[in-house]
Amino acid sequence: MENEIVDIPQLFDYRAAAEVLHLSHFTLRRWISEKRLEHVKLGGRVFFTKSQLAQIITSRSVEPVLGK
Question: What pLDDT is recorded for position 26?
Fold first, then answer.
C-alpha cells in the first residue's frame, strides 16, 4: 500500500465560521437544524470547510437592480 498525501481541507467550527461570516453562532446552529447549510460532522461536532463558507456567501449575494 502506497503512502499518499491527501489535501485535507481546513475546518471551521461554529464560532470560527460565525466570525468569518459576521453572524452569530446561534444563527449557524439554527440554519443547520433547518437543513439550510452544508456542513461536515465529525465525532458529533459540526464543522464547515472553506469552500462551504464561500458557498454560503455566494448563495446569499444580491444582484443590483438597475434604474427605475
Answer: 94
